[in-house]
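hey so i finally got around to running the thing on that chain from the lab meeting. sorry it took forever, my laptop kept dying and i had to restart like 3 times. anyway pasting the input first so we r on the same page abt which one it is
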Amino acid sequence: MHKILFFCIAVTIGLSAAAQKTKKERKEERRQRVNALIKQEEEGVIAYRKHNVYGFKLTNDGWGLTYEHGRAQSIKKALLFQVDFAERKDPKEKKQTNLSQPSSPFIFGKINYFYPLKLGVQQQLLLGNKSNKNGVAVTGNFGGGLSLGLLRPYYLEVNDSTGGRRVIKYDSPDSTIFTSPSQLGGLDVASAGFSKGWGDMKLSPGAYAKAALRFDYGRYNEVVSALEVGVTAEYYFSKVPQLIYTKQKQLFVNVYFAILFGRRR
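ok and heres what got predicted. didnt touch it at all, straight out
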């Protein structure tokens, strides 16, 4: 019995020491690999071939999500393939609440939610490399691609003649309600909610161009941790109806700020 107990303790200690040694070895191998990659970059060798980056951005008229796949062309150039989804709001939109009855806030005169979906390619140029493994790399990105505007009708929920509730939208026979604040005030109006309008979406195709500066402070260059500021211009082949009593636009220009994260290989 004592021999078995001693054997078990010895095996446990041996496995623990082996695991500790393996962990130290992996850490040392990683350190050596990182140092070799840094040296390669200093000598002009392409240390990374591709990367995948995800991000969240705020614009002057909404918000967005982005995905990027990059492929290195040289030590200072890379080609970026990007997918971007956003929600764009009219600056004049204002939420209102029906004071006569508690309900979901609504936006008077809103015709459509506007979701631009962009597919594009950018050229990335290295403007300033990291001075060390914990420095900041600065790149300039420019390019463009196709933009598909998704228009989801905005629905309101109001009382009907039978005392129940019904939903209406701007291009329905009840569209005059949207243009009459006095009628809305007497209808116990509320937003119909997030679930309405997805089956009635319309498409508005267009194109876009984008330019940006990216500040990458990711440790060891293996991890992408970056901030990006830029400007985009989108042009749609037909006017985009967002809000009544406002000029419908085809050209949208905005600035944005993005937080990006990902990995290189």
